[in-house]
Amino acid sequence: LSNTAYFRSQYQKSIEFDQKGLLYNTKNHSKRAKSLLNIGTIHSVLRNRDLSFEYYFKAFEEAKKADDDQMKASVYLELGTEYTHIEDFELARKNFTKAMEYFVKVNDKRKIAFINQSLARIHTDLNEFDLALEKYRLALQQVDEINSPYQKAHLHYLLGRTYVNMGKSADSTKEFKQAQILFQQIQDMYMV
Question: What pTM, to 2 d.p., does this model score?
């Protein structure tokens, strides 16, 4: 099997597993929402956009029935990401904003930082650089609070890309160097 065929078969097995979960969890709406979200995410990875949206919307309905704020937030986050993939930035922003409301409510700081990062990338794509820099700086503060070295390194890399788009080579070089240092520290931590 080629790598592509292998991964497609593994994704199909994951979908089948979650479909079985739907059959066994007829009354547990949170578990049903999680299974539907997983299936939607797999379809997103496979670029089956119509199916990913279909499963995300079904997951949201189950999350509402369960009154599960964490799951609602997760669905909004995935919808925001999916809308970003198809470059519907307005709907992406709306879904990220709703996800943020729920993640603030459940105090998930890692996801809040990720949403700020995602919003910053949208602002960069729309050449709204001041807004992008503001969101990146906010996300950097948040990842410092939760001690997430990989996310911090990635944010410095994304800041570097933003400065490139702005034509600020000195700032971009500074951010890329900082990202490189942090990625090296992470590698050193995990290499034996």
Answer: 0.82
